Amino acid sequence: MPSVLHSAQQRLSHTAEALRGLRRLRELGLSDPTKPLETIQLLRDAKVFGPPATAIRRAARTWPDRPALADERGELTYSELDRQSDALARGLQRMGIRPGTVVAVLARDHRGLLLTMGALGKLGARMALMNTGFAKPQFAQVCERENVKAVLHDSEFLGLLDALPPELPRVLIWVDDGTEIPDGVTTLDALIGANAQTPLPAPKKAGGFIILTSGTTGLPKGAPRERTGPLATVQMVDRIDFPRGGTMVIVSPIFHSTGFGTWLTCVAFGNKVVLARRFNAEQTLRLIAEHGAEMLVAVPTMLHRMVELDPAIREKYDTSSLKAIVIAGSALSPELSVRTAEVFGPVLFNLYGSTECAVATVARPEDLAIAPGTAGRAPLTCEVVLFDQDGRRILAKNVKGRIFIRSGSPFQGYTDGRHKEIIEGYMSSGDTGHFDDRGLLFVDGRDDDMIVSGGENVFPQEVENLLLERPDVFDAAVVGVDDAEFGKRLRAFIVPEPGAELDPDEVKAYVKGNLARYKVPRDVFFLEDLPRNATGKLLRKQLVEYEAPSPGR
């Protein structure tokens, strides 16, 4: 009986929260009860087109002449984005792409990617967003697993397609200068130019989309979503101050969940998105200054490179228009939190979530001011709880546990049939963390990063954060490796600041002077750069397998 009562109370609580979420959308102008026909149209579109095409169609109806994007080729308005994606959809249909066809999209951030996402939604095709950091074997394996039947890609990835069956239809959606287009391969511009810019009949249902996990420990898994409802937007907008009718620079890859979700929200508010195919710290400052951008979306590694620029370089660009920097994708160190406030002011928003769970928590600037590095609090329609190793709920403050999330936009299980662990309706994030006395969440590390050294539990992230506080350390990573005596031991990798000379023994003494003895790395290596994927996540497996140079080398 108590479980039945608890379940009923949960349902009532979730219903009340959903109503608060809808009210929040109205407050922000994303839902207007005085325009019922528009609301009905939006709900109908969401069922048959999916999020990208629905967002583009609504923006084209609402703000046809507003700029939708700016890239190396100039600007497109929302009307142009909508009409050109209609023409592209017609061209892809003539190539044999039908509702339900799985289409791999391998592209950097540019107009071709946004047009493709809109066109595939209008066809009812199933979009699989691929990682631009793939090697050929990974790309081939993922395409086979996801049953890919066509590929839309940038010209720089032509070499990867050798691993796929030659009969697969393929379209170049971005062609670099000087690229020779292979025989039989068509381009996005050719398809748009050869077809009418009028809508096709709507598909019967949305084709859905697949976003891949980061794959830091193996082959990336596919996290599908058939469609998302209006409450999914609440997760993004409840605690993050998006501009309205303004400009955003997104340098976080749109093929991954952070870039994808923030771009959809950008469109919902009628903003212009400024895109760059490759990240460069100074170029990003230039884009912010040139376009008067109010928001930047990045990953922590990118932001770190921006705040570490020579002050003389930063002062060349007026970034006073910037009101928000949204980061996600990997851990925010307390040091980076403080440095960002020093350089850009109180504008940092730290989004914590995952490909599977979507948004879990958001730390606003005022949270980071009192607790640098915190992951913040859950937005409306989301909830974060902790469980111990035996599945018991942890309610005490400052006690570490496994992080589990109830999200307004969870995925339906991986495409290979596996699923995340679920307890009492909450999904595992794969991370360990704790709540402080103010109820702010701190992420202490990945479950599988924790090591047991000499009987003590050690989270490498704590040591990393300490090393990053040093002014002579540009970047740092700490991993656990096998040890015959202690079972596991810590190994530190450090990228020194330019011109800095560090000594391994001095680094060990520094850690010993600030943390417990068992948290001192047994090995310290210096590298020119740390291995990271396209979304900035550290490839720890490569560091675990690192072969230390012999003393004579």
**What does the main sheet amount to?**
8 strands, mixed
Class based on secondary structure composition and strand pairing: alpha/beta
Under CATH, the topology of the domain at 21-228 is which?
A: Rossmann fold
User: In one word, what is the shape?
Assistant: globular
Report the top-level CATH class of the domain at 21-228.
Answer: Alpha Beta
The number of helical runs is 17
What do you see in this structure?
The chain is an alpha/beta fold. Among the domains are: 21-228, Rossmann fold, CATH 3.40.50; 450-544, GMP Synthetase, Chain A, domain 3, CATH 3.30.300.30. Helices cover 33% and strands 23% of the residues. It has an 8-stranded mixed β-sheet, with helices on both faces. A 7-stranded mixed β-sheet has the order 7-6-5-3-4-8-9. Helix 11 packs across helix 13. 47% of the residues are buried. The mean pLDDT is 88.
Topology:
Layout: H1 2-27, H2 36-49, H3 51-62, E1 67-71, E2 74-77, H4 78-94, E3 102-106, H5 111-123, E4 126-129, H6 136-145, E5 150-154, E6 170-174, E7 186-187, H7 188-193, E8 209-212, E9 222-225, H8 231-237, E10 247-250, H9 257-268, E11 272-275, H10 281-291, E12 295-298, H11 300-307, H12 311-314, E13 324-327, H13 334-344, E14 348-354, E15 358-363, H14 365-370, E16 383-387, E17 393-394, E18 401-406, E19 422-423, E20 426-435, E21 441-446, E22 451-453, E23 456-458, H15 460-468, E24 473-483, E25 487-496, H16 504-514, E26 523-526, H17 540-544
Parallel strand pairs: 1-11, 3-4, 3-5, 4-8, 5-6, 6-7, 10-11, 10-12, 12-13, 13-14, 25-26
Antiparallel strand pairs: 1-2, 8-9, 14-15, 16-17, 16-18, 18-20, 19-20, 20-21, 22-23, 24-25
